[in-house]
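Quick one:
INPUT:
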């Protein structure tokens, strides 16, 4: 017993560093694109947002199914309880759309050269969602799913723009000032 007490009283020299244990057992896995390069920060952000959107789309689909069924069979509507808030068939449709967008975004984050469909869909969606949210607010109706989807679409638009830009897509198009020089 004296040895155990003596062992605990061993003093470390001043300035000795104490090594911290790693919190995780596995080292951080580096993500590799389809072209063999590591993911850029915009690819990682797009992937992270797509995973979040995948989870959100699942919740949106589930809540849409529940509240549509409650409205049809039990005559319970969220708008009766919470004023201007509603979860309707639109929520279910937005959930399916978001599920497709998340899968396209994951594919585009893996291979930036194939992000084209996601890129254009997100840009068009951002414009349409801004129009819908503005019109909903102007009539005094707030659709929860479309408001959250609008914020997500704006973040996706920024990420998709930057991932698309790293492929050289914007560099290979003629600029107006170049057209004047060739005439």
């Amino acid at each position: 017993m004296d040895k155990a007490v003596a062992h605990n009283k061993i003093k470390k020299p001043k300035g000795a560093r104490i090594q911290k244990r790693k919190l995780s057992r596995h080292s951080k896995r580096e993500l590799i694109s389809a072209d063999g390069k590591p993911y850029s920060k915009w690819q990682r952000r797009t992937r992270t947002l797509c995973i979040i959107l995948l989870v959100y789309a699942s919740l949106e689909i589930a809540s849409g199914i529940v509240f549509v069924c409650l409205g049809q069979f039990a005559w319970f509507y969220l708008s009766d309880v919470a004023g201007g808030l509603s979860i309707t068939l639109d929520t279910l449709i937005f959930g399916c759309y978001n599920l497709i967008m998340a899968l396209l975004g994951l594919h585009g984050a893996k291979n930036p050269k194939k992000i084209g469909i996601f890129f254009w869909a997100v840009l068009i969606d951002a414009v349409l969602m801004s129009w819908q949210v503005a019109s909903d607010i102007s009539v005094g109706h707030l659709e929860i799913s479309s408001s959250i989807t609008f914020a997500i679409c704006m973040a996706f638009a920024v990420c998709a723009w930057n991932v698309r830009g790293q492929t050289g897509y914007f560099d290979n198009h003629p600029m107006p000032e170049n057209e004047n020089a060739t005439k």
